[in-house]
Amino acid sequence: MPHSASAKKRHRQNLRDRERNRQVKSVVKSAIRKVLGAVTAGDIDLAREEFRGAAKTADRAAAKGTIHRNRAARIKSRLSSRVLALAKGESAAAAKGRKA
Known about the structure:
Elements: H1 5-41, H2 44-64, H3 69-88, H4 92-95
Helix pairs in contact: 1-2, 1-3, 2-3
């Protein structure tokens, strides 16, 4: 446990920031699951709508420094390819880059 006043304050800040980061990451993961669920269900309109929300959520988390900006870009890229593949009528396996 911290002994000095500054160490105690830093510990409180770390606990607060950790909880906030966990909440933000959870929201990002939930947004990703919503997009993938819509893609699996084959609902193009819902998938596009959920993708917009997921991209916004990932960008916001990256702007706050909760996740790295490259991770946000990777999330958006992978989800975008799935949504575009659904719009083209390809299978989910083809959207992942595998042969169907």
